[in-house]
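[SOLVED] Need 3D model of a two-part complex

Original post:
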Amino acid sequence: MKQKNRNHFRISLEILAFLLAVFLINFFFFSENPGFLNGPLNPYTALTLLIAAYYGKLYGFSTFVLTIILIMVPINKDMNILEYWIFIWSDQYIKIAVNLIGVYVLGMIRDSYILRINHYKSITKKEVFEKFKYKNEVEALSAVNNELEERVLRQNESVTSLYTQIKALHTQSLTETLNILLSTVNKFSWAEKASIWRFDPNSNSLVMIANFGWEANDFENSILDMDDSIEGWCFRNNLKFSVRMLLEYDNLLKMDKKRNIFTFPINFSSTSWGVLNIEDMPFTKYNLYVEKILSILVDLASPEIERAVEYESIIAYEEINQFTGLPSYKQFHSMIGINISKAVKGNKTFSVILLEIMNFSSFVKDFGEEKTYKMILSLLDKLNILSNNKIDYFHYKETNQLAIYYPDIDYDGVSLYCLETLGIINNTEWKINDQLLALDAIVGYSSFGHQEISADELLSVAENLLEMQKV
Amino acid sequence: MDDYAFFREKSDHFMPKTPIAALRAYEHNFVPISVFTNKSNSTKPLDEEPYDIDEIERLLSRKNLGLQTNIILIEIFEKLIFSEDQEIALFAAESINIIENRYNKQIQKLKEELKEEKEENEDADGDSAFEKNSQLGSLFYELAILNRKRDAIKKFFMKESYSYYSEIRKVRKLSDKELNIVVRILLELKLYLNATEVLEKSHSEKNAFYLMLKAEIEFARKEYVKVKEICTQLTEHIDELTEKEFVMISFWMGA
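Solution:
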């Protein structure tokens, strides 16, 4: 409002100054031509029209009135005022009327023009405001989007994550399986210290077999008495322990060495094997949800631990290949024998796959055994991923032959798997020393159904398939 | 036709490769909005193997990532460092550096601002200086958490963080957020008695926040009888507890 008043005042002063200037010029330099009435161009008229065009009707009319007043001032002392006024009226009334119409028309044009500009200004102002509003809204929405996406991305306790971890438990090494179990425990319970204990029947004690977060002094207690420890109590009674039980049971309180928050027995299908102990975890994670998740985890991990234990019991480590670290044919054969009797009892199926690299000897000749086997190991990795980490692999009778044990799969499933295996072999770019190679391999397979046959018979079926492809 | 039919149809659609290209294509009506949604979001947890390197890289490019996301990213990169693919191993090492540098830059900037403020007015102990000390403490704490597998570095950052909060404690009481961090630092450093002392001095009101922190300290000290007592006291503050806290307390009370 103040600004507006200031503008009016400024314009009024401007107009008065102009009029005064014209009047003074008239007074001092053209006193014989009062009001510039005798001439083709009247500065007063021009000024009035200019003001109307520039500042609008109101200022135009005001200037017009002031102009008339100034023109009516007799600048020559000898003039008769009345006669002068009559002269103005009689001689100039048409020009005055034209000037008045001119002021009105130019003022109207200017006012409508200003009106249109103001209209566009208000539209632009509104749009700029909307633009900033939308910009803020977009920023807010994108922040929400980022937050929601991050929440999804960082969910590391999801069911899919649990599934991936359980799948990863299937390894050919007990140590590796137990370490994966501990890392899964860490992931789901945020445990800072945990350990797995295995029952040793010879010493009738529990022996620590895997841990994380242990410090040097913790290793002083890596063998536990069965009767004087909470771990032993869990193992003997096949019961889980939760630290709040200390507040209810005196017998547990007596055994407590401040080393147990959660303790779970690990059982195989027929026997008790050991315990999982959570020694340190954040207070916020000590709740029913974590207790249940850990119970589920132990139940799901038990068959994989059992498998790894059995696997290790039949593997003689002195017979593993120095380049691949894989067990020999002899161990494969005895494992197949054990699995046949288990499959008969449990009414289960499994398959064996034999893989023969036809150009193995030329690779060995050109690049040596170590690099050739490294390439073959990368093939086995791909096959393991293809099987969802279910297979175990071994060396077979010849150096260029490998054997794969695939549990819980019948002949139609394994034939599809073999087909995909050949697809992987043919579609992958195999390289040694950055040199592109063509891997020539043949595959044979055989499945154990529900009819009992010997390991030799089972393997001969797969071998025959290999031989047929060589003809 | 639903938006996702665009993906199912095997025709020669223009398929943008980046989120920005997808947004522009959507603005000009070449593709449905679902293409932008698809390109700019992921619903797969980051920590799922095999890792989606593109997705990890896209997320890493955001500068204002939260602590939890940074923790997961660092864990992933620490695994990827051992990748046989040298390019991926290098990417992982550089990415860890990027995350740590982001923290270092913020810390450096705050330190300089704090120094300037002190030079301008030596007696300056205003709110702005406290705020900066608090931010520095929080940033050092986050750095410690990111380095939790490297014990020596973790402890160094924890001590740095603690020193900033100590500056604040000399003049005023710690806010709940600051107190929470200080107690956690002391618990990490296994200074349980100090944690109790700080808590008692900084928080006179025995509300749910105080009791939860107290329970956390006693749990870390393995004083489970005391934890149960505190949980019993917490049942009188049920209105102040979050759903998660309520479930925790119920568990202790035998539910």
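Edit: The longest strand of chain A covers residues 272-280.
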